[in-house]
From TrEMBL:
Pfam family, one: GDPD
PROSITE patterns: GP_PDE (PS51704)
Protein name: Glycerophosphodiester phosphodiesterase
Residue intervals of the GP-PDE domain: 13-270
């Protein structure tokens, strides 16, 4: 379908910072996103979850254990509980917050989506946001409702006529994306896929999402998928592309966006810095 597209014009691959510049800085922290903006990323990727008191926070896992010095499910904690935890002074890439030999990063509180939107608004240039709803179905529409209300406050759900949207919503849940399209038809939606089910091999997407979000594994094993998605009228945004060989493959196949933990290196490989 001809759903609203995202990002740059033809032939320019958008570089999207996955959880911020998360190879260098702990993921989903303000510092990781600041670095991504400095690195020149075209867009920032973040996962969002609802706290017990209904705030959207940028946390990937169901629990805070891996990425903070706390314990427990995000959905069981209130924002003030999360704000008391440290999400910064650990490394996060297979290392433990409890280990003494982990490299040190600055202490930092949980990042709210609102704060991330402020950072983007203050950046002084166009920086797009690709926000992923994590396990939204258990909240019966509240995640999408809160998300669109917040994006609306930042003027992001109704871009000026003719302008491409600066925000897109991604999800592994087709239902979540359907809700977004119903409530905010101008916000592009990205259907994320770990594997391609046989019924999606032709490049079409459930419910007419305008952008396919295949894993790098899909692109490696089924490179023909990219052309099929394009023929079906969909952009292709691939995750998570860190290895130079994979960047090369994506570029050769003409994907529309590369979602990576190392935007600086990818931009430089693409000759953009
Ligand atoms: O950008 C999509 C990608 O982030 C999906 O996987 O687990 O990293 O959220 P995950
Ligand atoms: Ca994600």
């Amino acid at each position: 379908g001809a759903s609203p597209g995202a990002t740059p014009g033809p032939n320019r691959i958008a570089v999207v910072a996955h959880r911020g510049s998360s190879e260098d800085v702990p993921e989903h922290t303000l510092a990781a996103y600041r670095k991504a903006i400095e690195d020149g990323a075209d867009a920032l990727e973040c996962d969002v979850r609802l706290t017990a008191d209904g705030h959207l926070v940028c946390v990937h896992d169901r629990r805070v254990d891996r990425t903070s010095n706390g314990r427990g499910a995000v959905s069981a904690l209130e924002l003030q509980d999360l704000a008391a935890l440290d999400f910064g002074s650990w490394r996060g890439l297979g290392e433990s917050p409890d280990r003494d030999d982990s490299p040190r990063h600055e202490r930092t509180s949980v990042l709210t989506l609102e704060r991330l939107l402020e950072l983007i608004a203050d950046s002084g240039r166009r920086v797009e946001l690709a926000v992923e709803t994590k396990h939204p179905t258990r909240w019966a529409g509240r995640v999408e409702e809160r998300l669109l209300a917040l994006l609306g406050r930042f003027g992001l759900t109704e871009p000026p006529a003719g302008d491409p949207s600066a925000v897109r919503v991604m999800s592994f849940s087709a239902r979540s994306l359907q809700r977004v399209r119903e409530a905010a038809p101008r916000v592009p939606t990205v259907y994320l896929m770990q594997f391609v089910s046989p019924r999606l091999r032709d490049g079409r997407l459930p419910g007419g999402a305008g952008i396919a979000g295949p894993s790098m594994r899909i692109v490696r094993n089924h490179p023909e998928y990219v052309a099929r998605a394009h023929r079906a009228g969909n952009q292709v945004h691939v995750w998570t592309v860190d290895a130079p060989g994979d960047v090369e493959r994506c570029a050769a196949l003409g994907v529309d966006a590369i979602i990576t933990n190392r935007p600086r290196q990818v931009l430089s490989q693409l000759g953009r810095r």
